[in-house]
Design goal:
mainly alpha; Ferritin; 8 helices; about 0% strand; elongated; Mn_catalase_dom; metal ion binding; Spore coat protein JC; capsid protein; metal-binding
Length: about 190
């Protein structure tokens, strides 16, 4: 059973409009290494995992990635709140405004829409978990890049929280990988 608590996993309280940062941060929603891609990947990989521990871990992290997508959406919404069409156009978001107004739309920082092609599933548990380890490192690095692009403490606070969660997810995927290796080794017949 999944229980949705009607609050963000970590508070997002951005007080100043910053269209430029919204354009950059949106990649963590709809980019190839963003939270939506991670959630869809993990929640679908769980079905081919051979151990209960690995299945449970992918379910837990996959649902947490949905919470991160919600945080990113809140950040982008707050950063765009009150932006005029002219401001959006000046920031390179004229096409975003044309199709979506000030709504949050999953895309990367270049405006390329999210696609299911970003979901990384091969069906081999070892390969998929290595993919997940790499995905968490790419997300961590992207959060570090975003932190370097702003001086706003409200933005940095939320980004730091998300970055730290990527580190924890990486560690947990390492544990799941060892669990799957142990399971596969126990099934070898010589």
């Amino acid at each position: 059973m999944w229980i949705y608590e009607k609050k963000l996993e970590y508070p997002v309280n951005i007080k100043c409009k910053d269209i430029r940062m919204a354009k950059y941060i949106i990649t963590q929603l709809g980019g190839p290494d963003g939270e939506l891609s991670a959630a869809m990947t993990y929640l679908n990989q769980r079905y081919t995992m051979p151990t209960s521990k690995a299945k449970a871990l992918l379910t837990d992290i996959g649902t947490e990635e949905l919470a991160h997508a919600e945080m990113i959406s809140a950040m982008v919404y707050q950063l765009l709140k009150g932006a005029t069409p002219e401001e959006l156009k000046s920031a390179g978001l004229g096409s975003q405004y044309t199709q979506h107004d000030n709504a949050v739309f999953p895309s990367d920082a270049n405006g390329v829409p999210w696609t299911a092609a970003y979901i990384g599933i091969l069906g081999d548990p070892i390969t998929d978990l290595h993919n997940d380890l790499a995905a968490e490192q790419k997300a961590r690095a992207t959060y570090e890049h975003l932190i370097n692009l702003t001086d706003n403490p409200d933005i940095k606070d939320a980004l730091r929280f998300l970055r730290e969660r990527e580190v924890v997810h990486y560690q947990r995927f390492g544990e799941a990988l060892m669990d799957v290796y142990d399971y596969k080794d126990s099934k070898k017949i010589y």
